[in-house]
Write a structure and sequence with these properties.
The chain is of the alpha+beta class. Helix content is 19%, strand content 49%.
């Protein structure tokens, strides 16, 4: 899944900062939670989600952690799933960001 989100232009139009990167990561986590909750075959129900710390990869990319909190519908056992997303500008001419999931999520 690739998510796209737009932000207003500033003077530093080609450097991605932590605020927009974290906002896009949190938005992406919400999309993942929506998809998990819509999947009838998945016994996991996401009740909370968000973004954790972000680290700069370069001027245009950030690696951010995302999480989903919820429970297994069959057992009512609480579950937390963590994963990483890469957030980046996909165009030099715009402030739109994209995010994609890096690797597999870890659930416990």
């Amino acid at each position: 899944m690739v998510a796209t989100l737009g932000f207003g232009a500033t003077a530093e139009a080609h450097t991605l900062y932590a605020g927009p990167a974290r906002g896009t990561a949190a938005w992406y986590a919400g999309l993942v939670a929506r998809d998990v909750n819509r999947d009838e075959a998945n016994p996991f129900l996401a009740t909370r989600w968000g973004a954790t710390g972000c680290g700069r990869i370069n001027a245009h990319r950030w690696r951010c952690g995302i999480y989903l909190l919820g429970y297994d519908v069959g057992t009512n056992f609480g579950i937390r799933c963590d994963g990483n997303v890469i957030v980046y500008y996909f165009s030099e001419a715009s402030r739109n960001t994209r995010a994609y999931q890096e690797g597999e999520p870890y659930c416990r």
